[in-house]
Amino acid sequence: MFRFLIRRVALTVPTFVALMFVTFVAVRLVPGDPIEARTGERGIAPERLAQLRHELGLDQPVWQQFLDYAGGLLHGDFGVSIVTKTPVIQEFAILFPATLELSLCALIFAVVFGIPAGVLAAVKRGGAVDHTVMTVALTGYSMPIFWWGLLLIMFMSEYLGLTPVSGRMDLINYYFEPVTGFMLIDSLLSGQEGAFGSAVAHLILPSIVLGTIPLAVIARMTRSSMLEVLGEDYVRTARAKGLSPLRVVGLHALRNALIPVVTVIGLQTGTLLAGAVLTETIFAWPGVGKWLIESISRRDYPALQGGIMLISGIVILVNLIVDLTYVAINPRIRHGG
Fold this sequence. Notes:
CATH architecture: Orthogonal Bundle
Shape: globular
Distance between the termini: 11 Å
Low-confidence stretches: none
C-alpha cells in the first residue's frame, strides 16, 4: 500500500506543475487590465500607473512573473488579492465551507438517487423502467446547469413558492455569527427556532441543480456495473441456492458492483466544484465559485490563480483518496498499478 501511495503521489507532481502553468497563462488571457479594473474609467497619472504596476509586479517580464508565482506556491503563498488586500488563502478559507456544504449535499442527492436508479434499471433490464431511468439520466447529463437552475427557480420558487430563490439563509428573520462556516451546523448551534429549516430550504434547489449531472453519471455506471456482476457465476449460484432476489442483488451483486462506482463518485468531485461556479452565480450562493466569477470581472489575478490552484489541489487530493479506497476494496489493483 505504501509503495502504491508513493507512485500515485509522484504522478500528481507533473499534474500540479502543468496546472500551475496553464492557470498562469489562462488568467492572463482574460481581456482587460487589473490596474484599469481598480481605477475605473477616470484614468490616473502615468507616475501613479507605473507605481501600481510595480507594486503588483506587472512591470516584470512574464517569465519573471511566472517564477515569482511558482516560487510563492512552493512556499505556500497563494498571493494577496488586488482588490481586498487580503491573502487569497484567507479569503478561500472563509468561502470554501459554503462551497463544500453545497457540494456535499449535491453529492448525497446524487448518490441517494443515482445508485438505486442504476440498480433498478439493471434488474429491470430492457423494460420500461430501464428505458425511463436511462432516458432521464441522459437528459440530466445533457442539461445545461444555468438553464436547469433558472427553470427550477421559475417553477419551484416563483410559480409554486416552495423554496427560496437565492442565498444560504433568511437573513431578515435569522442572524447569528458563523462558527463552522457550514450553515446547517451553525443554524443548529444558534438555537433559533426555524433557522435550520431555512438553511435546508435554501440548499434544496442548488443541490438538485449541482447534483443532477453526477446523479446521471452514477446511475449509468451503477447500471453498467450491475449488469456485468449479475452475469457472474457466483450470482447464478446464489440464485440456484434459493436466496431471495433482494439478498442476491443487495448483498452479493451490489457489493461487488460498487467498486467502479466508488471511483466514479470520487471523480465527480471535479464536476461538482466546476459546476459550483455556475450554480453559485445563479443562486447568489456566497462560495468559492461566485468569488472566482467576481475575480474575473475585477481582473484580480492573484485571487483567480490562487483560487483555481487551491480547488485543483483539493480535486487531486480527493482523486488520490479515491485511488487508495479503490485499492482497499480491491487489493489486486496495487499489484497492477
